[in-house]
Amino acid sequence: MKLKTAKRWFSWHKWTSLICTIFLLLLCLTGLPLIFHEEIEHLQENFTVETIEGQQRLSYDKLVEIAESKNPGKHVRYAFWEKDEHPNQVLFDVVEHPDDHFEKSKYVLINEYTGAVLSEPENEGFMYIMLRLHTDMFAGIPGKLFMGLMGILFIISIVSGIVLYGPIMKNFDFGMVRKHKSKRLQWLDTHNLLGIVMVVWLTVVGLTGIINTLSDVVLGLWQQGQLAEMTAPYKNEKPIEGSLSSLEAAVNVAENKIPTMDVSLVAYPGTPFTSKHHYAVFMKGNTELTSRLLMPVLIDAKSGTITDARKMPWYVNTLFISQPLHFGDYGGITLKIIWAVFDVLTIVILITGLYLWFERRKSKITFSKNNSKVK
């Protein structure tokens, strides 16, 4: 590699890394507990789901009444199921208006068989703070997009690091750490070694992180594209007045339409994931991969009949796959531990990178001072 070209790549690596390092440290530190969010949530749960042999599940309409009775003047807008992790439970999101900001949500977790309120989770606590810091730094969509920009700089720093590493290692053995040289050279070799060994993981986490920051953009594209097509016949109709059709019936219709999938989420009319005339029943598959992908079934919230059901477009599925992959949430606790180890090693890479920059800068300042004294 020519000296001029090498200097250019070194400049790209240095400045992209420096600009994004502080934010990457924040992402690594907050991401560590988020990798184990399910395990932490299980430890925090202090209730058991009681079921009796032969007992019938209560209707979802009855459970909606219970959730709304806990929050007078408010109404359910979302219902969530996690049958693998939290069987026999349904979580309701209750608000005053369907388009309220999620910060106004009240949550009610209910036992499907007894109707007992298991908990009323709040948007607060350690895990909530970690999640918000990791996703948008409490700055909403601008914060997400800013983190996406930092992710792009991170990818550039990875690419430039790979380009620089090849020529450097032509004269050395792979994995070399010069233990008998200066402390700075030892840290430089450690930095380079960890970076090249983890390059695939760093790239995967970086790219999936960028994709995840575009979730609001993806939602907007889906709303204007597929969702608009599915609800086109209702475009000029007035919003539903009066009571809605049965939630229980809507879920049953969707499950009968796609018996190979399970209900994961129901969005009420007027929410961002549906129209003002439909329940959107989102179904998921039963395998490790298909359980991450959702398929919307639109149910007319007045008549209770199916309007449309389609597979999500590729860009939405890309987002669905990226979200769990970013946190290593595909292979159980073993993969999560591997992700955590790599996360810690990434922190080492970032800290050594800062150390090397400070040492290099200090050396330049010292050299300049010595030269000025000689003159």
Secondary structure layout plus pairing:
Layout: H1 3-35, H2 37-44, H3 60-69, E1 75-82, E2 86-95, E3 106-111, E4 117-119, H4 126-135, H5 140-168, H6 183-197, H7 199-213, H8 215-230, H9 247-257, E5 262-267, E6 278-284, E7 294-300, E8 306-309, H10 314-326, H11 332-374
Antiparallel strand pairs: 1-2, 1-5, 2-3, 3-4, 5-6, 6-7, 7-8
Helix pairs in contact: 1-4, 1-5, 1-11, 5-7, 6-11, 7-10
Protein name: PepSY domain-containing protein
Transmembrane segments: 145-169, 190-211, 337-358
InterPro entries: PepSY-ass_TM (IPR005625)
Report on the architecture of this protein.
The chain has helices spanning 3-35, 37-44, 60-69, 126-135, 140-168, 183-197, 199-213, 215-230, 247-257, 314-326, 332-374, and strands at 75-82, 86-95, 106-111, 117-119, 262-267, 278-284, 294-300, 306-309. It starts with a helix and ends with a helix. It has 375 residues and is of the alpha+beta class. It contains 11 helices and 8 strands. Helix 1 (3-35) runs antiparallel to helix 4 (126-135) and helix 5 (140-168) packs antiparallel against helix 7 (199-213). It is elongated, with a radius of gyration of 26 Å. It has 3 domains: 3-39 and 130-212 and 331-369, no CATH class; 51-115, no CATH class; 214-234 and 263-326, no CATH class. It has an 8-stranded antiparallel beta sheet with strand order 4-3-2-1-5-6-7-8, with helices on one face. It comes from Galbibacter pacificus. The chain crosses the membrane at residues 145-169, 190-211, 337-358. Keywords: Membrane, Transmembrane, Transmembrane helix.
